Amino acid sequence: MTNVYFLGTGGAFSAGHRSNLALLIESGEFRMLVETGPVIMHQLTRTGIQVMDIEHVFISHAHGDHALGFPMFALNRLGIDASAPAFHVYASAGAIASLKALWEIAYTGFDIQRLNIHWHPLPDQESRQTRLTARIILQTAPVPHPPNTPTLGARWDFEDGPSIAFITDTYPNDTTVTLAQGCDLLIHEASFSATLQPGYDANVHFHSTAQQAGEIARQAGAKRLALVHLGPMIGRHPDVLIEEARAGTDLEVFVLDDGGLLQIKKSG
Ligand SMILES: [Zn+2]
Asked: Is the pTM for the entire model greater than 0.85?
């Protein structure tokens, strides 16, 4: 069984109901934090998950709602004398440069080179497979997020377990369909709603609607869809978003509240 904690399910404009998007993927001893937005420490505290138990971090891109909490996560993760076991950070080279710069601004004089962090720069122009453990492979690929923000989609394949794809801050594209092909769970952004915001052109804002996320899930043959990065105008209407994404099909669609948990098995 693989657990996906939805630490935060909102987008950048998160005042009120939902906090910035963050996930924790857990399988046995393996724990990977996905995104470190400004309130990441609060989100983790609420779940009771110990920061020291998180060995892996993935960050899709360097925008503030996905990255601004990184210095605080790193500080807490490394411990008071930076003596805690190392942790691994997977992101594009550009995003890693931004994370290091955030650290320098937050803690001037504490040389990040001396911190116990293993950086894993991933290409932002092509896909890449990275082995995380003996039984888990991370696949990443660039998805469009204009203007000019290198952004990675991700997929985790667990040996004898499920496959989980994660796509945020982008509009419908072929890379997403390839990355999510046949996965057990697609976690896809829905910044907008075609039902609640008719006439709103998500493409113009470089994001997706719940309807588009549903179409992508069907094109990819994903077994389940979870909608995240919900815009402030739509996040209080999960039933509408689920209907919109299903579009009359039997696709299983989830809209969880912050702190929600999905347990995913490999589909038979
Ligand atoms: Zn975002």
From this structure: yes
